Fold this sequence. Notes:
The chain has 177 residues and is an all-alpha fold. The chain has one domain: Tetracycline Repressor, domain 2, CATH 1.10.357. The chain is built from 9 helices and no strands. The chain has helices spanning 2-11, 19-26, 30-36, 40-55, 68-71, 74-84, 93-118, 132-153, 159-175. The chain is elongated, with a radius of gyration of 18 Å. The termini are far apart.
Amino acid sequence: MREALHSLIAEKPYDAIVVKEILDRANVGRSTFYTHFRDKDELLVSSIYEMVHSVRATAPLRSGPWYEKVVWFSLPIFEYHQRHRSNGNTGMGVRGRTVLHDHLRRTLSQMAGDAIAAEPRRSRKAARSIAPDLLAGYVASTFVLVFSWWLESKKPLSPKEIDELFRTLVLPTLTAS
């Protein structure tokens, strides 16, 4: 069903897609769809969890600076998106972008927050004065901003280049003393 939704998004704006089209494309019945998902937004959100689950295979570094355990997800997500990016229309529409960005931000904020909470305070000079949940939210929101900019501006930047841009924005805050 996710593949059906993604292929439809390549053809037309997300906001114009109806569940019946997803069912027809996936060749599944209505009851099967509603057994797993409440609506097309929930199906879209499940794609985020699928993506994060697949990039977790590149688990955070066990050693190195503490902030690498906070931002480890950035390059794998950019690379994942590059591999799965369709060449057609990527018109998510306002509602689709809002759903996608909100859930991606929440998921990444939770992951970054877990990494920050696991790190001893003495390793985080700058973070002493910044509440961990605020710092995690900042990292996640900045990632979503950079990710959105990359997609919407259609800049010919590689995943590595856009990752460097993201890190240029967040690392000074994470490493400041």
